[in-house]
Each structure stands twice: as structure tokens, then as C-alpha cells.
Amino acid sequence: MPPTPTPAQRSPEEINRSIRAFLTARGGRALTRAERKVYEELLAEWHAAEQHCRAAC
């Protein structure tokens, strides 16, 4: 798996689109443990990007 980009590499909007696409692809079903881990990583990346954007803006 490629390394997760740092918040400076992806905007919160880009990450949000990734989160929405990830969840949409699952069709509303419950996430598996592995999927839940991916989702939590995306949320953490989004949160870090939001913090980075607030500090830089």
C-alpha cells in the first residue's frame, strides 16, 4: 500500500471526496474491520488537513 499523503499534499476537500467515495462504494452496508480501519485513517487525515489549513490560512 502506498504511503498516506501528508495533509499538505491533499486538501480537506480532496480527502472528503475520498471519504464519500469510499463509503458510497460500500452501498450503505456495515464496514468490515479492515474497511473501518481505512475509514478511520481517512478521517484522521481529514482532521489533520483541516488543522493544517486553519493554521496556514
UniProtKB/TrEMBL annotation:
Domain of life: Bacteria
Name of the protein in its database record: Uncharacterized protein
Species annotation: Streptomyces morookaense
